[in-house]
Amino acid sequence: MSIRIIGDTLPNIPWQEKEDESHSPAWRYSNNPIIKRNPTKSAARIFNSAVVPFNGQFAGVFRADHKHMQPFLHAGFSRDGLNWDIDGEPIHWVDEEGNDYPMGRFEYDPRVVKVDDVYYIIWCCDFAGCYAIGLGWTVDFKKFVRLKNPFIPFNRNGVLFPRKINGNYLMLSRPSDNGHTQFGDIFVSESPDLTYWGNHRLVMRSGINWWQSTKIGAGPAPIETDKGWLLFYHGVITNCNGFVYSIGAALLDIDEPCKVLLRTNKYILTPEVDYETNGFVPNVCFPCAALADADTGRIVIYYGASDTYTALAFTTVKELYDFMLENNELGIDDGRVVR
Ligand code: BMA
For residue 69, what pLDDT is reported? Predict the structure, then answer.
């Protein structure tokens, strides 16, 4: 079946042809991980990070766990999307009036989404000591402006859609708790101005297959296609040794993204290789960004591996769509508007 990405062409997208025989629709970059341990003076581990095309090259916001183990956000730049020059100092935020915005005790799991000409950053922030969703913007990855927190705690995995839908901004999120949350479904909320949020809807629940039975959370910004919004997400199973984070894909209705059209009942990537199964938190593949080339249908997913490294996986929109059609299983509320 045919499917087409609606968006920009990206001729310099990082790319490698499929070589492995895994029968998986996504394949790993042979030089993974692209960011290894102790990559900067301040950072012990850089992972779960977001990148976007920027001025013909690439820019990003990176989760850097420092040597006191608290995570902060750092800006970075790259010519090729593979070799990154990451700022040694955390991002310094100012508020909308230009005053310093004090850094929280932690900032992690950023997503970066370009809407019109602005790059929005959404991450897990410290809201009065609680885990919540932070929101800010930049146009140059040098000056960063902090907006009001969109939701009250506890919430994580906030992801904006890359354009307004029916005149409103849309944000996916995953209501959580103040620990290593043992539950979690994806919801969507709307806002006319990025300040006031409402019209909350359920998108999808965890639970249908074991790989995504404990909790799920949106990954990179959804990719627009002529068949719907392509969403990569993480799905978690709890086994006797703890959580295992895999990556799955779903297709959401283009005008009403709370309706799930397709959803993979199998993961598209799960921890299998050394840098995913051995690290600070073993068995984690956590996607936070994807680049797509509308010309060729190529997609590269940036994911955090074992809370230690940054790694890449490749796929194409066609390969994914075929896999989604063959392995589609909707949860009980998928495809309905649940308010
Ligand atoms: C989640 C988040 C992620 C992390 C994952 C596995 O709750 O904290 O940043 O990758 O756990 O440790």
Answer: 96
